[in-house]
Amino acid sequence: MTSTAPSPEVLLEALRREVPSLRVDTSGGRRAQYAYDASNYRVPPLAVAFPADADEVAGAHRVCHRLGVPVTSRGAGTSMAGNAVGTGLVLDLSRHMRRVLDIDATAQTARVEAGIVLDALQDAAAPYGLVFGPDPSSHSRCTIGGMIGNDACGNHSVRYGRTGEHLLALDLVLADGTRAVADRDGLHAVDEAGRERVAELTAALRGIVDTNLAAIRLTLGRIPRQVSGYQLQHLLPENGFDVVRALAGTEGTCATVVSASVRLLPKPPAALLIALGYDDVVDAAEDVPLILKFSPAAVEGLDEAIVATMRHRRGPASVTGLPEGRAWLYVDLDGEDPQQVAADAERLLDELKAAGRMVSGRLITDRAERASLWRVREDGAGLAARLTDGSASWPGWEDAAVAPDQLAGYLRDFRALMAEHRLTGVLYGHFGAGCVHARLDFRPDTEDGRAVMRAFLTEAARLVVRHGGTLSGEHGDGRARSELLSEMYDRPMLDAFAAFKHAWDPEGLLNPGILVDPRPLDADLALNTGRTTTPSTVFALLEDPDGITAAANRCVGVGRCRSHTGGVMCPSYRATGDEQHSTRGRARTLQEMLRGALPGGWRSRETREALDLCLSCKACSSDCPVGVDMATYKSEFLHHHYKGRLRPLSHYSLGWLPMWTALAGRMPKLVNAVMGSRLGPWIARLGGVTTKRSLPAFHGRRAWQQGLAPAEAAAAVLLVDSFTKAFRPELAGAASRVLAEADLPTEARGDVCCGLTWITTGQLGIARRVLERTAAALDASEGPIVVTEPSCAAALAKDLPELVDSDAARRVAARVRTFTGALAERVAEGWRPEHVPDEVVLQTHCHQYAVFGAGQQRELLRDLGIQKVTEATGCCGVAGNFGFEHDHYDLSMAVADQALRPRLEAADLGTPVLADGFSCQMQIEHLVGDDRPGATHLAQLLDDPSSPSGS
């Protein structure tokens, strides 16, 4: 075994030779993406591997054991303590090892691979009326393996406790590649080759317990959330030498879990959420013991900073149903009888009122309100990272826990400690279990800030111990708190931990630097490593005045972009399952580029590859809790990357589409004839355009002016974009007539351009010049500017003031409305159309979703009286030029398969399909072919509601 780790090339060669089926990546871009998790740390690995099964995991371990290479197992990479990063080989189990192997509904058990996402397990169990109890807020992306590693709990931990309580058996790979199974009867070898090693390990574990019986009994398992250290109490004779429970919370330092058998539970038939408002989080904590007498399933707390951030980022309507207060508790009551649950809720409210601390409280019976409130809590970690004033907060002391009856006193003293160190922060967490998540405004980027951070964390550890608590309640100790275990445990117990680690991993190769022989808590901090530059940008990045580096550093790794459900972000990750194609993976790559860790700066090949499959849908700018706007960053990167160089062919064809459509509009019949001939596919290929799609027919340059409503006494401008003029000119007349009927007469203009195609292809110099002319022209008019194409409206509202620094640009941007937004204002004034269909299928354009609000179109349709709206929540896959590009067609179709195609296939032929975006309409026409009518714009539907096509 070597004394120092080999080079990435040596490791790669050994893995390819001995485990040829294992996919391994040592590229700079891949190592950049896996140098981070959701913590404060940056630890670049030698390589990243994506095993497909337990045999490949075992093979990788054998190679690394022989070469002396550390191994870190990783699921979703959402650790806030730094326990999912490592210097050696990172095994990403989430990419391929994500299957449900078996569900036994009678026994109420499941067997799953370690990389399965919790929500996927819940979906598989739901048809049997079963659930897996622990439910972390990251349930949409966290993996079962990660939950085992941290002994995670979740929002309903008052009812369901920790993950370890629900484990029946674990399939393991030891550090040397030995395969073993841990179950409630002990530890067993999988094959004859491992029998001696497993027997030796079992004897060592029993010896550790025999030597430390009294210390283990007196020190460990004192409170429900005592996760810090190793859970050796489960090996005590009275606990049946439960190796499974002892392995929960070991953070990948003892063995790699490749699959698990877990216990499922019946889903309670009745549940009711109660929202309680308080003046202060300490007042809220004082009421927790009273609430616990009612046997709630959940008691979650949060302060006003998270709520304010949610409303600031996503609008006032994003948080509905909260009672009056500046701090809140969510209490979930459940049971067999809905009437009894409701009666218990009323009785709880009465007792809380009598106690005198609650400001107000209410039962949340509306499903939408309930979902809204839980969304605030589940996005807490991300929302708390970037607050309304733009300041950042950081983990590090985000997981301390005390007994619930000690919570108020601990919080009171904790806030005093924060004040002493002049720190502010956000408090939220599982108050019913005594677990507090805090993000504080540390300054890990400065020497003084790091000194304050170290001093505070040390004193905070002593404080929580004085309150009988634990450093970690579910996140693990990781790199953030392992050094502080000496504040919580005495030397004999730390020695027992070291012996436990050594028994499993004698060479110390599994996730080293954590729990035993820890790295200093202020080593490897991401903001204290490498050389960071802040180059100038074309975009003003108004929400990040410190520039592109601050913008990229918005990403703190919480990984909502890795979700496969909810919202729109991130369509490319949902299609590929590859971290590189997530918003987080791209942000981390940009961070490394700006740090100088990737060669080439703006010319970086790795960064270009990471951004290539970004659809520029902008969904991340609203769905990401910290507001990462990858579409803007991609445009900026492409601008610099190709400056002075030849660009991809599609940048000249699709990127310059407004100019080509203007030219084609002068001779549309000739152009259409040529494109419909044998020359058409050749021309498409020459322009980098896929030949698998039918191109729309061009119309004459004045066709859009036919059928416009009279423009007398115009109160608004109707901006007719290049797509509408060239490909769907009848829309201009329909929009004009509907707006006139809604008492908003308009002057239609087709002489200006939003510059969108140049923006998305990173040709920002041209885009800026186009937008300067547009701003000057439109600023001379008055009233709202109603834009038929949602993506053009978004470009004028969002990109215009960031590319053109003028009062005219800002005034114009403030006047921009989508067609939906303009009608919503008229509906608020009392206007209603005469006829609307009873039902529609809706595809909202991603840019409209991101810039003008996720629910803008859905809410208008409801207000118009449409009774049923079936929404294809997700990107259509075309996203402007992306889906028409030759290299991106396949991914475009895979994205359409996520939501749009299933909704179309399920809809009746007579149900209108609404899609205001031109690219969305093109994708829908491509998907349905001749099987059903294509999509229609809302203006066309209201102009002629009897026609599914709106024409």
Features of this protein?
951 residues; alpha/beta; seven-stranded antiparallel sheet; 43 helices; 26 strands; 13% strand; disordered C terminus
Average pLDDT number:
94
Largest sheet features: 7 strands, antiparallel
Radius of gyration: 29 Å
Shape: globular
Count of DSSP H/I helices: 43
Distance between the termini: 75 Å
- Class inferred from helices and paired strands: alpha/beta
Strand order of the largest sheet: 16-13-15-14-18-19-17
Strand content: 5-15%
Provide the low-confidence segments as ranges: 947-951
Describe how the helices and strands are arranged:
Layout: H1 8-18, E1 23-25, H2 28-33, E2 47-50, H3 54-67, E3 71-74, E4 89-92, E5 100-104, E6 109-113, H4 118-125, E7 130-131, H5 144-150, H6 157-160, E8 167-173, E9 179-183, E10 186-189, H7 195-211, H8 213-219, H9 243-247, E11 256-263, E12 265-266, E13 270-278, H10 281-286, H11 288-292, E14 298-303, H12 304-314, E15 327-335, H13 338-355, E16 360-364, H14 367-378, H15 380-383, E17 400-401, H16 407-420, E18 425-430, E19 435-440, H17 447-466, H18 478-481, H19 485-488, H20 491-504, H21 548-552, H22 571-576, H23 583-595, H24 605-612, H25 620-623, H26 630-641, H27 649-653, H28 657-664, H29 668-675, H30 679-686, E20 716-719, H31 722-727, H32 730-741, E21 746-749, H33 756-760, H34 764-779, E22 785-787, H35 790-803, H36 807-815, E23 816-818, H37 819-828, E24 839-842, H38 846-852, H39 856-864, E25 868-871, H40 889-896, H41 900-906, E26 913-914, H42 918-928, H43 938-943
Parallel strand pairs: 2-4, 3-4, 20-21, 20-22, 22-23, 24-25, 24-26
Antiparallel strand pairs: 1-2, 5-6, 6-11, 7-12, 8-9, 8-11, 9-10, 13-15, 13-16, 14-15, 14-18, 17-19, 18-19
